[in-house]
């Protein structure tokens, strides 16, 4: 309010002929805003915070959990089918207790979702590479999986064995047909 009085007095002192129309218009607008504020009808605008703040509890957590479940189910089905073919072709003795216990332990970990997300992501990537029949990238992914897996060594060895079985036996047989 004091500023508007000062502006008004300034106008009187200088004379209205020396002030441009634009300056008068701006000062008039400023006085009107101050009158509205004094009456309580207009508040000073505040900055709006547009920073993205996701609702972590509902949407993202549920989406991540759903994605993880889908990946785990997909990998579980894939490994079970591969294991059945592997044992059916007698590539390994079904009676070999270490291989059988590693296979069962791995499948139980996948069923109970007791597997790290990094291992799950690598397994899903390797499965995708098999479906794409990209053997070179699959071999690189197997090396990476062997180096970075946090699974027990027997589980890791069994997975690598199954994927090598795909590389050496299943994919070449498909390509011949």
Q: Segments where pLDDT lies below 50 for 5+ residues? A: none
Which term fits the overall shape?
rod-shaped
Question: Cα distance, first to last residue?
Answer: 89 Å
Helix content: over 70%
* Element pattern in H and E: HHHHHHH
Gyration radius over CA = 35 Å
Tell me what portion of residues adopts beta-strand conformation: under 5%
Topology, number of strands: 0
Q: Averaging pLDDT over every residue, what do you get? A: 80
Number of domains: 2
User: How is the main sheet built?
Assistant: none
**Derived structural class:** mainly alpha
The number of helical elements comes to 7
Protein name: Glutamate-rich protein 1
Give a quick rundown of the structure.
The protein has helices at 2-14, 21-39, 56-88, 97-111, 117-132, 135-148, 153-176. It is mainly alpha-helical.
Give an account of the 3D structure.
This protein folds into 2 domains: 2-39, no CATH class; 67-176. The chain has helices spanning 2-14, 21-39, 56-88, 97-111, 117-132, 135-148, 153-176. The model has no long low-confidence stretch (mean pLDDT 80). Helices cover 76% and strands 0% of the residues. The chain has 177 residues and is mostly helical. The radius of gyration is 35 Å and the shape is rod-shaped. 13% of the residues are buried. The chain contains 7 helices and no strands. Residues 16-66 are annotated as: Disordered.
């Amino acid at each position: 309010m004091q500023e508007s009085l000062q502006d008004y007095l300034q106008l009187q002192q200088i004379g209205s002929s020396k002030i441009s129309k634009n300056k008068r218009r701006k000062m008039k607008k400023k006085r009107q805003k101050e009158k509205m504020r004094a009456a309580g009808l207009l508040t000073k605008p505040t900055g709006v915070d547009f920073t993205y703040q996701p609702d972590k509890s509902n949407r993202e957590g549920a989406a991540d959990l759903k994605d993880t479940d889908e990946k785990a189910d997909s990998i579980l089905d894939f490994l079970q089918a591969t294991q059945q073919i592997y044992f059916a072709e007698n590539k390994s003795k079904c009676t070999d207790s270490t291989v059988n216990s590693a296979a069962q332990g791995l499948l139980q970990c996948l069923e109970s979702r007791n597997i790290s997300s990094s291992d799950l992501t690598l397994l899903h990537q390797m499965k995708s590479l098999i479906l794409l029949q990209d053997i070179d990238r699959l071999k690189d992914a197997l090396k990476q999986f062997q180096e970075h897996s946090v699974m027990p060594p027997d589980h890791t060895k069994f997975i690598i064995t199954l994927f090598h079985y795909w590389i050496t036996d299943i994919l070449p047989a498909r390509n011949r047909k």
